[in-house]
# Entry
Amino acid sequence: MNVVENRTIRTKKQSHCCLCGSEGKLIHHSLDDKLFGAPDRWDLKKCQNTDCGLVWLDPMPLIEELPKLYMNYYTHIDPLRSDSRLRNLYQKAIDAYLSMRYGYSMPGYPVPGKINWPGMLFYLHPERRAAIDCSIMALACQKDEEQKGNYLLEVGFGDGARLQSLASLGWSVEGVDFDPAAVENARAKGLTVSQGDIFSQNYADNSFDVLVSSHVIEHVPDPIAFFQECYRILKVGGKMVHYTPHVDSFGHWKYQSHWRGLEPPRHLHLFSLASLSRAVSQQGFTTVQCDTTGRGANILLDSHYLKQYSSSDPDKAGQDKTGLGKRLLFESFSLLSFLLRKINKKWGEEVVVRAIK
# Structure
């Protein structure tokens, strides 16, 4: 291993793609961390194999150095929940959509799968509909009366909101996360969770029916080993679902080094449709489907602010004190994201892979 010592964070050279072995081409040079202030500057390379297209950091932080990248990281914050009338009405509309689209029996909607107008409203706003889909990982209700096939593991559960939602829908859930604060918060909510990564838990073979993660795999030092472990602990016929930023998106093309999805140096690998499909297929999954999602406004909005103010938070830059400008921009980017995916699905800001063992 060619270790580079003359940096705050020790690194190793990573000149070739970990998926196909092809040489990488430099696409971004000397990037700094504008989000959480991790030290040093970072280069990104892209696999020159057109059937792959993986992007990665070169040099790559050593595994034992990774905690330094998260010293000021604060994504795992439990959001404040509003009990306002408007919020309650919105939740009822979500319940209607989940009943209609995914077959769950929800309060006020006892006939799953039946078309209803509150649920149909979300088809008028693809960004919000895609966010609801991701909140339950687009998992349909389990029809088996004995509740077989519903033991689910979430890797990187963050604030625990998704685990709570899935548990309320009848799933038997468990989570693992590296953040001790996230683990403590989830346990306070009565959730079954563990601290660490997927490897340190030593799960038994064929443990889970479903394994999910959202914006986790880009942080993983060895994606091949990660997907191998997912395959091992899934039951035969089990399902895996992962969301991650899409490196071939319109936003990356438009904003280049300011694209929010880059997030150096925490995002170690960034996937295209082809590279994510390759990474999963190599592990033996029988069915692999890769596509971009309808979510994109937040990434585009953050990218806009990063380019304008070198910060993804306009308030910190002394801008947009009322929040109205940010809301209008968000809705504009929602429409833009929808139109771009209508023209070409490969332009989506986020990619999802679904696979069956």
Summary: Residues 3-66 form one domain. The first strand starts at residue 3 and ends at 4. The chain is about 30% helix and 20% strand. Residues 98 and 104 are 6 Å apart (CA to CA).
